[in-house]
Amino acid sequence: MGIAAAIGVLSPFPFYYWLWSYPQTWVGMCGKGRDPCKVMAYVSHFLKLIQFLSLFSVSTFSWPPPLYFWPLIAFGQFLNFRVYQLLGESGTYYGVRFGKNIPWVTEFPFGMLLLRGTDLENLQRHIPILMEARTADCLIATSIVARTASYRGLSLNYFGVGFILVYGIPLCV
C-alpha cells in the first residue's frame, strides 16, 4: 500500500514538469477557445484529490488533533488564498508559460518567504519530529513530496512546504 500511496502523492509532478517544459503542447491539446490555465486548474484539482486519497490510505488519525494542527491549517489556507488573490487563476496555473501577461508580484508571501531547496530539505528532516507520525508509509510519502518539491525551484518549494504543512501533518498524526 505504501508504494501505491507514494505513486499517488508523486503523480502531479510529472504533469507539472511536462507543462512547464512543453507549454505549447498543452495549449494545442486544450484547443482553440479553451483557456489552458482553467483546464490545468481542473486537472490539478483532480491530482490534488488523488494525493489526498493516497495519503489518507496510509494515515492514522487522532482526535482531537494536536494544538499545532489548527494554526498550520489556518496558515496554509491563508497562503493559498493570498496566492490566488495576488496571481489569479492564470498566474497560479502557469499562465506565463502559456503566453499570458502576468504582472510581477512582490507582496507577501512572494517578497517575504524565500526558501531554497536546501531550506526545504532541512525542514523535511524536522517534519517527522513535528508529525509524531504513527506509520512509516506516511513518513515515506511525506518525505518523497518534500524531496521532489525541492528540485522544482522556488515556486514549488513554496508549494511543497504548504502541501506538507497543510496536508501531511494533519493526516499523519
UniProtKB/TrEMBL annotation:
Keywords for the protein's UniProt record, in alphabetical order: Endoplasmic reticulum, Membrane, Methyltransferase, S-adenosyl-L-methionine, Transferase, Transmembrane, Transmembrane helix
A GO MF label: S-adenosylmethionine-dependent methyltransferase activity
Domain of life: Eukaryota
GO annotation (BP), single: methylation
Keyword Transferase among UniProt keywords: yes
Stretches that traverse the bilayer: 39-61, 67-87
InterPro entries assigned: PEMT/MFAP (IPR024960)
Record protein name field: Phosphatidyl-N-methylethanolamine N-methyltransferase
Species name: Pyrus ussuriensis x Pyrus communis
